[in-house]
Design brief:
134 residues; alpha+beta; eight-stranded mixed β-sheet; 3 helices; 8 strands
Length: 134
């Protein structure tokens, strides 16, 4: 299975990302616009997700529903499921645009009550990450 990773630009927390995604919700999907259609799009449609990076950490994912093309400018629209699934915090270098993410490198979903580092308040996690302590 193949996934994508993308930095949640200007998002300070998962809660900020959730609010942003609610504003983009239309017809049961969240649309993300990108210049180029992934060459491995068919692999991504076989159960892939887009993993979000905030402050150099994977924090959540959304299932990829499909890819469409904007007829006005030819850009690719990645349609995502509206559910934002939190994942175990996992360090990741920031990058521009999206990158492929192999299933073996993807963090696990955060099932049930958080524990360990995942149980820390988001504001504290952000401060610790900003100080490069996480």
């Amino acid at each position: 299975m193949l996934h994508l990773s993308k930095v949640a630009f200007s998002c300070a927390s998962v809660e900020t990302l959730e609010r942003r995604q609610l504003k983009r919700l239309k017809d049961g999907a969240v649309a993300i616009v990108t210049r180029f259609r992934p060459k491995r799009a068919e692999e991504l449609l076989a159960g892939g997700s887009l993993y979000w990076i905030i402050k150099r950490r994977f924090v959540a994912r959304q299932a990829i529903l499909d890819f469409t093309t904007n007829p006005r400018d030819g850009r690719t629209i990645i349609r995502l499921a509206p559910e934002l699934v939190r994942v175990r915090l996992h360090a990741m270098r920031a990058h521009q645009g999206w990158r492929y993410l192999e299933a073996a490198d993807a963090p696990d979903d955060l099932d049930g009550a958080p524990h360990g580092i995942d149980a820390l308040p988001p504001a504290l996690l952000g401060k610790l990450a900003g100080l490069a302590l996480l």
